[in-house]
Amino acid sequence: MEAEKGNKLTGDYTNKINKYAFACSVVASVISIIFGYDTGVMSGAMIFIEEDLKIDDMQIQVLAGILNICALVGALLAGRVSDYVGRRYTILLASIIFLLGSVLMGYGPNYPILLTGRCVAGIGVGFALMIAPVYSAEISSPSSRGFLTSLPELCISIGILSGYVSNYFFARLTLQVGWRIMLGLAAVPSLLLAFFILRLPESPRWLVMQGRLAEAKKILLLVSNSENEAQVRFSDIKLAAGIDENCTDDFVKVKNSNGQNIWKDLILRPSPPVRWMLLAAIGIHFFEHATGIEAVVLYGPRIFKKAGIHSKNKLLLAQVGTGITRIVFITIATLSLDKIGRRKLLLTSVGGMFFALVGLGLGLTIVEHSKEKLLWALSLCIGSTYTYVMFFSVGLAPITWVYSSEIFPLKLRAQGHSIGVAVNRLMNATISITFISIYKAITIGGAFFMFAGISVLALIFFFFFLPETRGRSLEEMEELFSKKSQPKIVGMGSSNQPTNNSCVQAQ
């Protein structure tokens, strides 16, 4: 029966991306551009903030890392909020929080207010990182989910590059004005997003969880390539929510799980598949930042300065090159995820990162111990940095968010993904706050050798614990994580069975 469903739909959706679903994902992903801009612009702004506000290295590390500590809190809150008010209004709330944080940072008369604005923006980051991939995953079909769910990561890269470009051009303004415009500029897209987000439809999966079946079906017709595909997706979602697939009511009364039950099912007494999903989500988010990307994105100018570049303009221009490399290869990954699959790209990505990190560590060590400027060593450092960003962007960067947002069961998806995001932000904050101290303790070359060692552990973890999810519907993930055999790429039919034979959700 399941094979029949898949075969009936093959011609409808396999090679087509629904234009309406694509447009919705693009608008929702704008929140990720704002986050990326905040991350990228701070790398260059710190050069001028340090000079203007007369702050030391420890204060710089705190300023860099506080955004991610607050994002951890925001991510955990966002999971609960999105289950209560919906995915769309959670994106709206994130844009408003970003707006407030950007205004405070742009004003920034002193360090405490600047830090407060950075913290407020961090809460918005947590909301954005949690909700954008989940929303995109929930409106997309299995054949295009990798592409649509990786759009937020692509938008983060666009935002980071925009931040680097902003650094380069606004650096020409006076010291007191330049960095404040860099940071405050994020308020503009935040305001525009808050206006346009209300035109987006709600996630059909969230609507089914609320018992609003007629609304969910109407939206599924818009985000599917045919009425047949929409009907099969609708039936699978109802089954996952514990509602009979043959129910034709416009609205049914459902028993909403409270937060306590969700946390029990996720952490206290998870089923074996959920335990494996949680391990996979936590692991991939942990290794995304434990392998050192934040050191390159946030402290790139310091790395290039250690390698032998001293002009501020050249430092910022080199960082722009990093941003361009990132966006080019994330675009390639976005177009490849649904064709090549998650595992192949992920393993290739981490393997390449290892060799690039070894090259960067070697180049920085040689430069540090040389008494004269070595052009070849500088070239090795720059080339290794760009190679590292290339391999990171083509796999680990987008797949982290795609994978974590697609593997959890419907009722646990928002809060399960939020746990992964919280771990992600914790590791991001750890690297942001400690990187300067680490490289002062073990040398900057030694720091990147350390990241290379961690990338080996990441490769081993991904090989043994992350099954391929390409082509599987969201409702099939529990079956996939119930066994360690490689899944077959099938259609949209779900293996789940209804728990009762009525329109009322199973108790």
From TrEMBL:
Q: How does it sit in the membrane?
A: Multi-pass membrane protein
Q: Which PROSITE patterns does the record associate with it?
A: MFS (PS50850), SUGAR_TRANSPORT_1 (PS00216), SUGAR_TRANSPORT_2 (PS00217)
Q: Does the keyword Transport apply?
A: yes
Instruction: Indicate where this protein is primarily found.
Output: membrane
Mind telling me which residue stretches traverse the membrane in this protein? 20-38, 58-77, 89-107, 113-135, 147-165, 177-198, 315-333, 345-367, 374-399, 446-466
Family label: Belongs to the major facilitator superfamily. Phosphate:H(+) symporter (TC 2.A.1.9) family. Belongs to the major facilitator superfamily. Sugar transporter (TC 2.A.1.1) family.
Protein name as catalogued: Major facilitator superfamily (MFS) profile domain-containing protein
Lineage of this protein's species?
A: Eukaryota, Viridiplantae, Streptophyta, Embryophyta, Tracheophyta
